[in-house]
Structures are given as C-alpha cells and as structure tokens.
Amino acid sequence: MTSPIRRIAICTGGGDAPGLNAVIRAVVIAALNRGWECYGIREGYNGILFPERYPEGGVFRLGRENVRGIGHLGGTILGTTNKGNPLHFPMQMPDGTTRDVDRTGEILEFFARKELDALVSIGGDGSLTIANALHQKGLRVVGVPKTIDNDLDKTFTTFGFDTAVAFATECLDRLHSTAESHHRIMVVEVMGRYAGWIALHAGIAGNSHAILIPEIRFNLDKVAAKIRARDAEGRMHSIVTVAEGAEAADGQRAVVEPAQIGHAERLGGIGERIAKALRQRTGKDARVVVLGHLLRGGSPTSFDRLAALRFGTAAVRALEEGQSGVMVALAFPNVNYVALEDVAGRMKGVPLDCDTLRTGRDMGISFGD
Ligand code: F6P
Known about the structure:
Elements: E1 7-12, H1 20-32, E2 37-41, H2 46-49, E3 59-61, H3 64-67, E4 89-92, E5 98-101, H4 104-113, E6 118-123, H5 125-136, E7 141-145, H6 161-182, E8 185-190, H7 197-205, E9 210-212, H8 220-232, E10 238-243, E11 255-257, E12 266-267, H9 270-282, E13 286-290, H10 302-320, E14 326-331, E15 334-339, H11 355-362
Parallel strand pairs: 1-2, 1-6, 6-7, 7-14, 8-10, 8-13, 9-10
Antiparallel strand pairs: 2-3, 4-5, 11-12, 14-15
The protein binds 6-O-phosphono-beta-D-fructofuranose.
The site of 6-O-phosphono-beta-D-fructofuranose (F6P) has 13 residues, from strand 12.
C-alpha cells in the first residue's frame, strides 16, 4: 500500500518544446483539484542542486494563479537546462580536472526534507533516464514525454513535435516561391538530433524534392542527379530538407561541439556542407536556411496542446493510482502508461519500412540513396 499523496513537485528538463506550459498547467490543476500541493523546481534540477542561484527560491509553490493563461505559451515557466545531468554531473576537482559525479542522492534528500511525495518529470530521453534512476532509488516518479525530435520510444508521439513540423512546413512553403523565382537550390536544415522525424514529416508536407535523414546515409551524387532531372523537365528550382544529424556515406556528421560530461554533442552545419557540394555538382546557385531553435518556439498547435493536457492529467491519475516508474504515452487514440526503464536510453528513429517514408518515395522524393 503506497502512502497517500499530499505534495508533488514538477520538473522540466532538456531542450524546451511547445506544450511544456500546458503540461504544467494540467498537472497543477488536476493536483489542486485532488487537494494536493504543487511545487515547481527551477531549471531542471538546478533549483535543488544550486538553490543559492535563485533569490526567489530554487523551488516554489505553484497555485492556480501561476498557471493561469499559460497553456498556449511556448517555453516553460519553470525554466529548463540540457546541461548538468545529475547522474553525470561535471565537478571541478582542485587539480583542475573534471570528474563525473552522481548527484541524484541530493535530489532524494531534498524530497525527503521538504516532504514531497512524488515527482512529475517532463522531458526527453535524458530527463526520463534521470527519472528512472530516481524511481529505482525509491522516489515516486511519473514521466511525461517531451521533445520536438519525436525520438522517444513507446509513445506514438511526443508533444512539441507537431508544432515543430507545422512551422517547418510553413517555412518550406515560403521558400518555394523564392527558389522558383531565382532557379535556385534551397537547402533547409532542421533539428531532430539523431532522428529524421522532423525532416521527414515537414519535408513531405512541404513538398521537398530531396529529404536527408540520419537513418539513410546520403550520396550527394544521387541528390544532384534528382536536381538535374528536375532541371531537364523545366523545373529549375529544388528544395532539399536535411536533418541536422544526417550522415554522408562515410558516416560523417556535422558536429558544432563534442559531448562533455553531463552534456550531449551539439549538431549543426550540415546544410552549408550540402549546399556547397550541390553547387559544385550542379553548377546551380544554392542557399541555406537553418531553422534551428525557431522550431522550439511559438505557441503549441492544438494537437500538441491537447496531448500536453492529456499527458499532464494522466500523470496525476497515475500518481493517484499509486503508480511510479512509468511514463504516460500516446497509444493512439488513448493515453496509456509504459515502464520508464523501457524508454530510458532508447531512441526511436524513423523505421525504414514506415508508411511515411514509403509515401515520400512514391511521391518521387529523393532520400539520397
Ligand atoms: O532535443 C531537442 C533539440 O532541439 C535537438 O533537436 C537539438 O539537437 C538540440 O536540442 C539543440 O540543443 P541546444 O538547445 O543545446 O542548442
């Protein structure tokens, strides 16, 4: 028999995604309606690990007034970070070296000291791996799947993805006319880390002529051949959508910053490389647009808002039912619960036999293979 819940904490971790505030709002309202108290942890776990940095409190009480009118806003009112993973925290040693330290014990002590009964952890793979570790150490935890990348396993989709795809599609729509007017190649680089979901979905919806994703190593001679074939038909412009993590045939990725303790590798720059190579191969003018963090901003689409509200309230129901170590997931059309240990550390890439990819191929889009 688990003890009844009286006080819960909410944490948002990793890169922000449209819909975070809607989840926070849903959790707070559903919890208050059960007579529970809610607390928000600032910037991932930094509010607990560095309370001195926050003069107004590293952790603060969340009432109805804090979540009023935030459901449609991008970002997170709690703040977030994708650095300083408490499982692998970079600690400076007196000799100047950096050591990888597990600081999750301090989080557990904090929860015990503040008499917090449970945690709702909203995040992607990194945050859910931390959530799983905290659960295994005895904390009651429910995870909520967030990321624009849509690369989390065991859920049909994560919130944030639909908004990112909708915005990228709008950008692609806008680029067609200028590409056509100038007879140019436009290369559009989108985020997604090691998964090609954003590039694939927006690329098809936005009528790209080539889409390059990490799951399919690309050969630029094939892309150049597609562009030349279009030119031969009198279609003098081409749009190439490329995922930031796409790899050339030799397995090379474009990396801006290598991984460090507590911080993942940072990707970027593949668009420029591709534009240069296509210029050389086709003799055409090519321009690059990097959508980058624009994909993480703005108001969530109604799909993401609804998913976020459903996920947040389902997380509260899970805690009420005595569940822990689970993530709420979209098992279309329902929300269900899956074990955090089945999600942590796993990445969901685009399956090579999926219908969406086959749709692209049947539409004549080049995948560079
Ligand atoms: O995981 C979300 C994401 O936006 C990825 O698509 C991207 O690679 C990464 O975060 C960028 O992180 P940062 O905010 O550190 O630039």
